[in-house]
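Technical appendix A lists one of the benchmark inputs used to test multi-chain prediction within the project. The record comprises two sequence entries:
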Amino acid sequence: MTMTALSPSLAQSVTAGFARKRRIAIAVPLVILAYLIYAAISFDLASLAQRARFDNAAILLSDFWSHKTHVTRDNRSGELTVAIEGEGKGTYPANLIPDWIVTDGDITRIDLGRGYSVTYDVAGARMIVPGYGTIDIRPVDGKPVLTAPEPIPDWISLAENKVSVTTDAGRFNYSRSKVETFKYEAGWELWFFTIDSPFFDKSFVELANLAIASPRIDPERSNFGYMVSEFWTNKMWRHGDVLWAIFETILMAFLGTMSAALISLPLGFLAARNFMPLGVFRGAVRRVFDFVRGVDGLIWTIILSRAFGPGPMTGAIAIAITDTGSFGKMFSEALENIDEKQVEGVGSTGANALQRARFGVIPQIMPVLLAQVLYYLESNTRSATVIGAIVGGGIGLLLTQAISTQKDWEEVAYYMVLIVLMVMMMDSLSGWLRRKLIKGE
Amino acid sequence: MASITYGAQPGPGPNLSSQQQSYLEMVRRKRMYGGILMVIFVALMASGWMTAEMRNAGGFWNGLPQLADFPAEVLTEAWDKRAIIPALIWEHVPALIETLNIAAVSTLLGALMAMSLALLATRGLARWPRLIPLFRRSMDALRAIPEIVVALVLIFILGGGPVAAVVAIALHTGGALGKQFSEVAENADLKPVEGLASVGANWSQRMWLGIIPQVAPNWLSYALLRFEINVRASAILGFVGEGGIGHDLKLAMQWGQGRYDQVVAIFLLLFAAIVLIDQLSDHYRNKLVKGA
């Protein structure tokens, strides 16, 4: 009888339990969804579409994999300049101008490929667009006047003093002072050698031949040495400086992590219950760890850069201080979880406190310790990039500088590739060391 | 010990003595390796610090006495204006909430991304076993890109605002959590999955009902830890880029003297928030993992 009396209540409680679980299963996604909606409203997601500059995105993407050559004529002096990305460092001297530009007296013909071409002459400038016709611009009282097949499409923009044409093959701008044509080509130009270098525009075979068999260009040094130094000091890409910056970033991470580990190991003993019987003292050390961690790397970085100035040392100290807090906490927890038997065993042979720590404790916590240190080394390489942007050192600084010019996107792309490679390298290095040192493979 | 086992005569145990010798040899070699490693490490550290100091704008010993100058300057000014500090703290709470929102939303989105990536990249669970390497590599790539790179590029395109930071942190979180989630999922018991498969459940049902309940406590614990990390990251991104309390801090710092009361207010607010979140997440993680 009691059974029959109980079973409905058991069934009820199970059903109630299921119902509760089901309610939770529905409620959790609903709460998350509600929060995301709230966040979308508070982040003003609706107006994002208007604020977003998709033309910026297009510039950025095209710069990532291509470069543009500016062919500019000064309308007042008639002088023609051909420069990569319009930079002084990338300007072609008159005898090296690429063969898609033909100059004949006052007339300049620019072949943009696929039937597109631009001509500058005394009367003005003309662009031929296949499938559309000729866009003719001639100045009247200093203002550009456009003659083109009607209706004017929206890729030709007309302002009072400026006409710009954007096509797949290139861009063309005519203003009072100058007329310019941008031709886009794939690849990062001048990556190996700049125009002023004797090795500019040589194929790989020619370069190999120069390095091995040809007479010296500069009698002072071998061609190969000259080549390496020309590459290293490339004015456009500054490979030497960039590699130094990468090295600085890794240095910051290495010094910061290792110093933090060295400082927090003895402090970890002071914060562990089984090594520091004095509760007050132990608590004090722990509060120091909490404080250092709580203040956060950002604030340490600011304070330190006031005292030590910008540079990698400041970044390394900032990383060291922040991580001392994290390591201290982890090490003391690891120390509290050790097996006391080994320490007793070492102690029974008459070892003193230091020897007990060295031979009884360290071997036990070493795997945990090393794993954490190596993991932090990898993660700090990333942090060092950010910290470098704040303290002004390493690749982080170069990256923020390149981004703030808002035009050297090919350099940004180059740095991004290098940063990702650097982090992946540190990731596999720390993984390899972990396997090697901890598992003894 | 050795002399006892060998007995009185030194002769009869050549094998043992060679074993002992080789043991001692091994110990010597190990010590030598350890010593060499130690020397290399010390040399690296010393030369590293020296290089770092050389390339720094100010030297270590010159800077050390000035270390306390800036905090002292800030604190004296703030002490003079201590009466208005609570009001200033209150004023910056909205910025703190924005920073926390950035961290929370990016952790949520990142965790959702990590969930699917982890399940797709775990052996035995993957929907398309052949694509496991693809998903693993994509997680590695997501982890490798520092937040600041994505954030700065997105600020250029999106014209500022918190969304750039959210996307940047979420992408990184997706990669980092994905790896940890997948390590947890590897150890999950596959019997419930088989059971569900036998009653005709499809892949998402098998994962949702067979795997998620097993791994949820550990996944949540990792996600909480990541939230802690993301709060810091979002503050730093605000300082370098835009939005949240980091940006307020940068503005107050750039103003310099006269605004140090604001600097202290922001410091205090950020410190309190970070410590509180650390404590809470510590508490709940312990609860989740140990089930206490």
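Residues 1-7 of chain B have pLDDT under 50 and may be disordered. Residues 111 and 223 of chain B are 7 Å apart (CA to CA). Comparable benchmark entries are summarised in Table A2.
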